[in-house]
Specification:
- The complex is a heterodimer of chains A (268) and B (277).
- With 268 residues, chain A is α+β, with helices and mostly antiparallel strands.
- Chain A has 4 helices and 10 strands.
- Chain A has one domain: GHMP Kinase, N-terminal domain (Ribosomal Protein S5, domain 2, 2-Layer Sandwich).
- In chain A, 38% of the residues lie in helices and 27% in strands.
- Chain B has a single domain, classed as GHMP Kinase, N-terminal domain (Ribosomal Protein S5, domain 2).
- Chain B contains 5 helices and 14 strands.
- In chain B, strands 1, 2, 3, 4, 5 and 6 form a 6-stranded mixed sheet that branches. In chain B, strands 12-11-13-14 form a 4-stranded antiparallel sheet, sandwiched between helices. Chain B has a two-stranded antiparallel sheet with strand order 7-10.
- In chain B, a hairpin with a 2-residue loop joins strand 11 (199-206) and strand 12.
- The chains are: A alpha+beta (268), B alpha+beta (277).
- Chain A binds chain B through residues 59, 84, 87-88, 91-92, 95, 98-99, 103, 172-173, 175, 178-180, 182, 187, 190-204, 207-208, 211, 215, and chain B through 73, 100, 103-104, 107, 110-111, 114-118, 224, 226, 231, 250-266, 269-270, 273-274, 277.
- Strand 10 of chain A pairs antiparallel with strand 14 of chain B, so a sheet runs across the interface.
- Chain B: It comes from Bombyx mori (Silk moth).
- Chain B: One of its GO terms (cellular component) is nuclear exosome (RNase complex).
- Chain B: Belongs to the RNase PH family.
């Protein structure tokens, strides 16, 4: 039995329940995002030279890789080799992130964005884009805007925001009027849509209606992300102050020792 | 795509022309280039088509194979897309260079044909739960002249229209194993119903307006393009048959995706989708 999460009166709810930065200590920037039960970890690394590349490019590249954990999917175990779905998600993620990142700041370099999906309960692409946006900001990669993403499944006359995996499966295989799933990612301040993918069979009015819903929904996520980023920056400032205080203390101790030895040497 | 050097003056010329609804080869923003379509070009394939859209040349071959259906979809066949950019098209495609483009085209095609309203996989079923036809759609890009998605979808639809599925003559059920005998007669086959197979329309945003069917020069002036997959109205494809027993299907979007390192304002997206329809 399918329990609709939000019935025909569309409820705008921020389903982004957890968002944290600094998850992975080895990476330059990282983020962990939970969208209902979908759990996604993202790490971003420093710009590096593009391998197997001869010509000079004016803009930097983004290398995105999405990987599912073998235990993440409900129906079957994911093989180790990247399959079609993972490659498709990687391409879609890159498509969504490219307009957000200031690529002219690192010409002829590439930034690695690596996503690992720990649990797949629907809206993987939306969760991955949110996590990638946070991780890029945490890694101090220059960006034009905060990027947020959301998805909607349409079954019959009802819209379900951020559908869990069961609803996605039903939407993909439904034979009702307008089955389909739309994922959209938005640059909030600039009010630009950076990626829009639709699968299924829907007519134009339905698509335009869903687009309105998605725009509002993406806007709701923005304050949460901003809060996380502000907390992150404040923490970094305090850490910096703390480190500077420590450095001063150590320098004082060293200076005292130096004076001692100098006086000893001179006194000799 | 490769080796295409446009000076900034030429780009400005193209952009300004598009604003006036006038493109460099005399078309308006919504005109297609003349195309040549030929079917049944490859004799060994079950169906094939070759499309030439000005400089873009696409060859599609379809092979049929018997396969077991998926356990959660016992009465549906399978269809699989493979896109291969040959190094003939541009030197960038040599080796694994064309992989990104090829995978994005095949992903979009897979999504477009995913819905049962777009392409009914039930017509590929032989024995429910045990045997079905699997179609391998192999798309070969022979030459690049801009606008791959449209050309690929047109050629695929033509090739599917041309596909001959052999009829099953005899069937032996041997305790769970099914033994098929296909008809030997080369004229004994059935055609697929491709009336509602989706066609992709690429709308390329140049300046403020969107153009349909961009040429390679126009593509290099644009940052982003929108690809809309539209399923057709099957009624308009069967001329003489009793059209009353076929439901009137409205035109629907079967897939929408964006391509290119840019972004659209929501209003532009809506207008572009309407224009695509």
């Amino acid at each position: 039995m399918v329990k609709p999460n939000s019935s025909s009166s569309v409820q705008y709810c921020g389903s982004l329940s957890v968002a944290r930065t600094d998850m992975v200590s080895q990476a330059k920037g990282s983020a962990y995002v939970e969208l209902r039960k979908t759990k996604v970890v993202c790490s971003v690394f420093d710009p590096r030279e593009i391998p197997h590349q001869n010509e000079f490019r004016q803009l930097g590249q983004l290398y995105c890789e999405v990987k599912f954990a073998p235990f993440s999917c409900p129906r079957k175990r994911r093989p180790y080799v990247p399959d079609v779905e993972e490659k498709a998600l990687s391409v879609a993620l890159r498509q969504a992130l490219e307009p957000a990142v200031c690529r002219h700041f690192f010409p002829d370099y590439q930034i690695d964005v690596l996503i690992y999906i720990l649990e797949h309960d629907g809206s993987c692409l939306a969760a991955a884009i949110n996590a990638a946006g946070l991780a890029l900001a945490n890694a101090a990669v220059p960006m034009f805007d905060i990027i947020t993403s959301c998805s909607v499944a349409v079954i019959g006359h009802q819209m379900f925001i951020d559908p869990p995996e069961i609803e996605e499966h039903i939407a993909k295989n439904s034979t009702e009027v307008n089955p389909g799933i739309i994922t959209m990612s938005v640059l909030s301040q600039l009010k630009q849509i950076s990626d829009f993918t639709q699968i299924g069979s829907m007519d134009v009015e339905c698509v335009t209606k869903v687009m309105e819903v998605l725009l509002k929904e993406c806007e709701i996520i923005v304050p949460n992300i901003q809060r996380v980023l502000v907390v992150d920056v404040v923490k970094n400032f305090e850490l910096k102050k703390h480190l500077e205080a420590e450095t001063k203390k150590r320098e004082e101790i060293l200076k005292k020792k130096m004076d001692e030895w100098r006086s000893l040497l001179n006194g000799q | 795509m490769a080796g295409l050097l446009l000076s900034s003056t030429e780009k400005v010329f193209i952009v300004h022309g598009v604003q006036e609804d006038f493109r460099s080869d005399g078309r308006s923003n919504i005109d297609y280039r003349p195309m040549e379509l030929e079917t049944d070009v490859v004799s060994h394939a079950s169906g094939s088509a070759r499309l030439r859209l000005a400089n873009t040349d696409i060859l599609v071959g379809i092979k049929t194979e018997i396969d077991t259906p998926k356990p959660d979809k016992p009465d549906m066949g399978k269809i699989e897309f493979l896109v291969d950019g040959s190094a003939n098209a541009t030197p960038e495609f040599e080796g694994r260079g064309g992989e990104n483009l090829a995978s994005s085209i095949s992903n979009t095609m897979q999504r477009a044909y995913h819905s049962s309203q777009a392409f009914d996989l039930k017509q590929l079923c032989i024995v429910e739960g045990k045997q079905c036809w699997k179609l391998y759609v192999d798309i070969l890009i022979l030459e690049c002249g801009g606008n791959w998605f449209d050309a690929v979808s047109l050629a695929t639809k033509a090739a599917l229209f041309n596909t001959r599925i052999p009829l099953v003559k005899a069937l032996l059920m041997d305790g769970g194993n099914v033994d098929l005998q296909l008809s030997d007669d080369p004229y004994d086959f059935k055609f697929l119903d491709v009336g509602s197979a989706p066609l992709l329309v690429t709308l390329c945003k140049i300046g403020e307006k969107c153009v349909v069917d961009p040429s390679a020069e126009e593509e290099s002036c644009s940052v982003i393009s929108l690809i809309v997959g539209i399923t057709g109205n099957s009624k308009s494809y069967c001329a003489d048959k009793g059209a009353s027993n076929i439901t009137d299907v409205d035109i629907k979007c079967s897939t929408i995706s964006m391509n290119g390192p840019g972004s659209l304002a929501p209003k532009t997206l809506k207008n572009a989708i309407h224009q695509g329809m």
